[in-house]
Amino acid sequence: MAKPQLHPSPARTASRLRPRLALSAIVLAGCGVGVLALAGGSDPEPARPAPRATLHSALTSVLGGAETGAAKADPRQLADQTAELLAQCERPLLSNSLDAAVKGCAAFLDHPTLAARAHAATSSAYMLMDPSEVRKSAAHAEAATKLGNAAGKYLWAYHGLNGESGVQMEADHARRNLEEALAAGMPKASKLLAVIEESNACLDASQFRLLDQPAFCLLRPQLDRWLKTSGMAPRPSRQAWTDEYNPGAVLPDASSFEVSYDRDPSSGMYYPAAMGYRFAAREGRSATELLARLGRSLSDKYGPPSRGTLPPAPGSGTAWQMAEGLQIELLRDAAGELRVRYQHPKRVQAALAHAEALQTQRDEKRAELTRRAL
């Protein structure tokens, strides 16, 4: 179904909102949210105010379709209440007035027929706010899903696959929600369905295994669940796009296990780019024995190294080139710390590029806010 073209009202308002809308478009394009008509990337078209009926039908299409509820309301009363929902909840969302949208939607969260749309709009608003609000977005997406809302199902599946909100969801559960959302008129759902299919195809084809799993084929929440199941305890991460674990139950010599992800800006999904064990610096015989044991174990499992020697000299590394373009490294820094690192080089480069682009966007936003304030 083609995305309806929504026109903000006066040209002056559209011009004033452009910087914020452009930022929202980036966020929405990144998380794949098709609830708002802002992800197209171009500035809103100025001039023509949209007729009320056209905007109402567009919002109904993307935020929920037909109203649901146990009891039938009086048609005229429901029409008035729907107009209030549009004015207080959905219009502010479309104009990127996120706090106003959340406040306006709150009045309809328990409405017998409009609650689904209110929860979907609230979930979308929280999605666009500070990352700390992502759990609220997930909670409202779940509520909208339980009420049969197509946008809610899409957002709930997104949270289950993305991993930022801590939602635990099996891929089959996410697929069902996405298929229902797609059938109900959410074309963006096809992108996440393709993500699931790509992951499944990788699982079937991959030859590389870490802890008996094709780790680079898993999405972030799937890999997180598997590492915890294997005995690794999560720790607070010190870096964005990185998860850290205590691997003591898996490899007692290691001090930490870290996974760095690439966030695909087109889908919002996190793909493992690099992962590995860190070993605190040791001295004397203990350090020599650990280095020899790691080198021997890697050679026994993956064959002779393709680059470097064993043991690696201080400040250098030894590498094994694997099928599927993966690389394994045994690294030894000048201070004596050791690392066994598994990486997907293409994703590592993509992660660096995506992080740089995101930082550029933040810098531009900060500069714009500074210009407005001075």
Shape: elongated
- Major sheet, described briefly? 7 strands, antiparallel
User: Separation of termini?
Assistant: 45 Å
Helix content: 40-55%
Order of helices and strands: HHHHHHHHHHEEEEHEEEH
- List low-confidence stretches: 1-62, 65-70
Please provide a written account of the structure.
- The chain has helices at 11-31, 52-63, 75-94, 98-106, 115-128, 134-146, 150-162, 171-183, 189-205, 220-229, 284-302, 345-373; strands at residues 233-235, 242-246, 256-263, 270-279, 316-321, 327-332, 338-343.
- By secondary structure, it is of the alpha+beta class.
- The protein has a seven-stranded antiparallel sheet with strand order 1-2-3-4-7-6-5.
- A hairpin with a 6-residue loop joins strand 3 and strand 4.
- The model is unreliable at 1-62 and 65-70 (pLDDT under 50).
